[in-house]
Write a structure and sequence with these properties.
The complex is a heterotrimer of chains A (about 240), B (about 350) and C (about 220). Chain A is an alpha/beta fold and about 240 residues long. Chain A has helices spanning about 45-50, 75-80, 95-105, 110-125, 140-150, 170-185, 200-205, 225-230, 235-240, and strands spanning about 5-15, 15-25, 30-35, 60-65, 65, 80-85, 160, 190-195, 210-215, 215-220. In chain A, α6 links the parallel β7 and β8 (about 190-195). Chain A is globular. In chain B, α9 (about 185-200) crosses α15 and α15 packs antiparallel against α16. Chain C is an all-alpha fold and about 220 residues long. Chain C has a single domain, classed as MetI-like (MetI-like fold). In chain C, α2 (about 45-55) packs across α4 (about 85-110). The chains are: A alpha/beta (about 240), B alpha/beta (about 350), C mainly alpha (about 220). At the B-C interface, α1, α3, β2 and α11 of B face α1, α6 and α10 of C.
């Protein structure tokens, strides 16, 4: 089976600053892949490249085995199979319902189907009573759950989560993690990439984890190996909590 | 983005509001507001257009575009005489009241059919260059010297306009009087320069008069009179604007301190735009208008116009008045235009030959 | 001179018609143009923006002169014969609206947060869809652009006088009527007309404010 995501020697420079150096890894379908590392290590850069929001300075990106270049016409089509949630919840200045429906509307779904799917999702989120509220009036946790639902509502085959539960209270973190689990359970071929600095979250959710340090991938290992017997000393230190800064 | 991209954007805009159906997601407020916006915009546009159509519903009648100076329009003369011509010939006259210079420019470009202006030198150039078909004298009004009601300079007893100006100059340079000039290349301004030139001050010298007493305002006549009222200054004004300001008690501290010199006559002429240069102009109607203005009926009508208790315009195209007045006018013009212009002004008289009653001198 | 109520109504309606049409046309051109300039990357973008902002200062009389020369009988489009008609006034005033609306649109869409633009893209919007969405997020600014454009032309006199000619019953609008009355020394009457103009503007602005304040659900 073709891998969902494949990076081959990807580097990214902003002016003279190297954000990512020669990153190569593969994420198979059905995997929940974690990317951990200190702030500024280049985790978000990887997600932005995978979501084709930015073109790598060097290297290649393959989605579902196909080579894609950011800003190409095909990139728009490929991006439609991907969902992404940013750390800071960003809602559009419109109702909760229309925020949810936005992903479907831009994909050209017909109105009745949109209404049906949005309706079901609103009930699941427990936001049915506030469907007409402007999404900007939701609480931080509600907003982030809405953003997650909006990114996942069109059943993307790849879901990218960038610190999706940072700065939230434990209840909302749990609710969000449940939403992710539910998403994975629905279809075993779905791929999720989670960027986090929260070791416990990575341990709870990911099947395989990469440590990125100063723009370089230090180690990629299955969950058990990553947490119990990592090859690299930096991984051991990071997992042990000594280097979290 | 290409033009097709723009269309795409437009399409998206249309598509987006239809995102949610009412029964599932709630009332589509945006749709309502767009509808309200559309209704109001439509109301404004339709209302405006309807008003416009109402205003122009008589468009089937032939129309004549007349460029004229603000003085003839603002004095109310045109509102008094034009309806008579419009009724007689079943036409409509669109009056464009602008500065003399602008009126002549509109004629040059063929944007109007006929001119009624008072800038003799520019008119002659206009006709000589072929833009105007002929220049026919119609009427004149008077320029007067206006100053503080007490007339501290005693201009009232001046022998002529030049002497009055000399008094203003002497007292002005001595810091005892002020003068406000239009300084806007208007007909009034050129008349003022003509008087200064009799004292040996050409345009450049006048422009260099110190601003301590000689104020170059760049304003219209009414505004200049208002300034004089504030500054206790003298100025040269057309009598119509002066009477109007007096009548409405806008300038209670001013008075007409000198008038009567033929050098201060202000000659108006009618000039149909040359249809060989601008084929589209309504030459027939323009010629008819010219002939009507100088006809006995037209001239009598002009003479009968009174406002603020005074006759404002004096017809001088008919044989009774034209001979004397036009001679006076052209003499007075020559004062300002210099000896070299003498021949030109003589030729002007010959151009008006087309008018049967006008004698050639 | 305006002496009857129906004349005043005609003049007021013509003012609304001319300014309204100029605002609609100017916005129809300026808003998409501003969105493209603001959101697309292209060479010389800085220069285009500077030019747009410079044109804020475009003198109305100059716009009138340009339109005059184009539609004068001696000009390239003289045969259309639209000089001294409301159409010519609308064209001249549209040119005054376009830079303002374009410039304010540029600023409004640029001001929309980077994270919103990223999110919209990440949610799968095509390039044109994201432009539309960003424009909608910039709604308040876009309505403001129309308001400022309308404000400029309803109050403008130079271009209206030059290409309209202030013909009684044909092209006389509130501002040229005010100018005429002022010239004749009828200051009180001119002020009354000014109050009429402001009342008309108030109606339009009230409506636009309402449109602006609505949260676009």
């Amino acid at each position: 089976m073709k891998p969902a995501i494949c990076l081959e020697g990807v580097s990214k420079k902003y002016d003279q600053i190297v954000a990512l150096r020669d990153a190569s890894f593969t994420v198979s379908k059905g995997e929940v892949f974690g990317i951990v590392g200190p702030s500024g290590a280049g985790k978000s850069t990887i997600l932005r490249i995978v979501d084709l929001l930015e073109a790598p300075t060097e290297g290649k990106l393959l989605i579902d085995g196909q080579y894609v270049v950011a800003n190409s016409v095909r990139a728009e089509a490929v991006r439609r199979k991907i969902g992404m949630v940013l750390q800071k919840p960003v809602v559009l200045n419109r109702s909760v319902a229309n925020n949810l429906g936005y992903s479907l509307m831009i994909r050209g779904w017909n109105e009745d189907r949109i209404a049906e799917v949005v309706d079901a999702e609103l009930r699941r989120l427990g936001l049915n009573g506030r469907r007409k509220t402007n999404a900007r009036n939701l609480s931080g946790g509600e907003m982030q759950r809405l953003c997650f639902a909006r990114a996942a509502i069109h059943d993307p085959s790849i879901l990218l989560l960038d610190e999706f539960a940072a700065n939230l209270d434990p209840t909302n973190v749990a609710l969000l993690e449940n939403q992710v689990q539910e998403f994975i359970r629905k279809d075993p071929n779905r791929t999720v990439v989670i960027v986090t600095h929260n070791m416990f979250q990575a341990k709870r959710m990911c099947t395989r984890i990469a440590l990125i340090w100063d723009g370089e991938i230090v180690e990629i290992a299955d969950r058990k190996k990553f947490f119990e017997s990592p090859d690299d000393a930096r991984t051991a230190a990071f997992v042990g909590g000594e280097s979290i800064y | 983005m290409s033009s097709s991209g723009v269309i795409e954007v437009a399409n998206c805009y249309i598509r987006e509001p239809s995102l949610c159906s009412k029964k599932h997601i709630g009332v589509n407020m945006k749709g309502i507001w767009i509808a309200v916006a559309a209704i109001v915009v439509a109301a404004v546009v339709v209302g405006g257009a309807a008003g416009y159509v109402l205003m122009t519903e008589d468009d089937e009648v032939e129309s004549l575009r007349l460029a004229t100076t603000t003085s003839t329009y603002d004095s109310g003369l045109l509102d008094y005489i034009l309806p008579v011509f419009e009724n007689e010939t079943n036409c409509k006259i669109d009056v464009i009241a602008v500065g003399s210079g602008q009126a002549i420019e509109l004629g040059k470009n063929g944007d109007v059919d006929v001119l009624l202006v008072h800038s003799p030198a520019a008119e002659k150039d206009f006709v000589a260059a072929g833009y105007g078909e002929s220049r026919t004298l119609v009427m004149y009004n008077n320029f007067v010297i206006v100053g503080p009601s007490a007339d501290p300079l005693n201009t009232e007893n001046a022998k002529n306009a030049s002497e009055a100006f000399q008094k203003i100059y002497d007292n002005g340079t001595a810091g005892l009087a002020k003068f406000v000039s239009r300084a806007d290349n208007s007909g009034t301004h050129s008349k003022e320069l003509t008087v200064w030139s009799t004292l040996g001050y050409n345009k450049t010298l006048v422009a260099a008069f110190p601003s301590s007493w000689y104020i170059q305002s760049g304003q219209g006549m009414g505004a200049v009179l208002d300034m004089c009222e504030e500054l206790d200054a003298y100025t040269l004004s057309d009598d119509a604007t002066y009477y109007q300001r007096m009548d409405e008690n806008i300038i209670p501290h001013l008075n007409m301190t000198y008038s009567g010199d033929s050098a201060l006559f202000n000659q108006y002429s009618v000039i149909p735009v040359n249809s060989t240069i601008h084929a589209h102009v309504n030459h027939t109607l323009a010629a008819a208008f010219k002939n009507w203005l100088v006809s006995e009926a037209g001239q009598d009508l002009i003479a009968s116009y009174e406002k603020y208790g005074h006759q404002l315009f004096f017809p001088n195209a008919t044989p009774q008045t034209a001979r004397v007045a036009s001679l006076l006018i052209d003499e007075s013009m020559d004062v300002g235009e210099g000896v070299t212009r003498g021949w030109n002004s003589f030729r002007v008289l010959r151009w008006t030959d087309s008018f049967p009653f006008h004698a050639v001198h | 001179m305006i002496s009857t109520g129906s004349e005043l109504l005609d003049v007021t309606l013509l003012s609304l018609y001319v300014s309204g049409m100029a605002t609609i046309l100017g916005s129809a051109i300026g808003i998409p143009l501003g969105a493209l300039i603001g959101l697309k990357e292209f060479g010389g973008k800085g220069a285009v923006k500077t030019l747009t902002y410079t044109l804020y200062g475009f003198p109305p009389v100059l716009s009138g002169l340009v339109v005059y020369y184009v539609f004068s009988r001696a000009g390239p489009l003289g045969d259309l014969g639209i000089l001294f008609t409301p159409t010519a006034m609308i064209i001249a005033e549209t040119f005054l609206v376009i830079p303002l609306v374009t410039g304010i649109t540029i600023t409004s869409v640029v001001e929309v947060d980077r994270s919103i633009k990223d999110t919209v893209k990440a949610l799968g919007a095509s390039s044109s869809q994201s432009i539309v969405t960003v424009m909608r997020e910039a709604w308040v600014g876009l309505v403001m652009a129309c308001m400022i454009g309308f404000g400029r032309v309803i109050a403008e006199v130079g271009a209206a006088y030059l290409v309209g000619g202030n013909i009684d019953g044909e092209t006389r609008v509130l501002t040229t009527a005010i100018m005429l009355e002022t010239r004749m020394g009828h200051f009180e009457w001119a002020m009354s007309l000014g109050i009429v103009l402001l009342s008309v503007a108030l109606m339009v602005f009230l409506f636009l404010r309402l449109l602006q304040e609505r949260e676009m659900l």
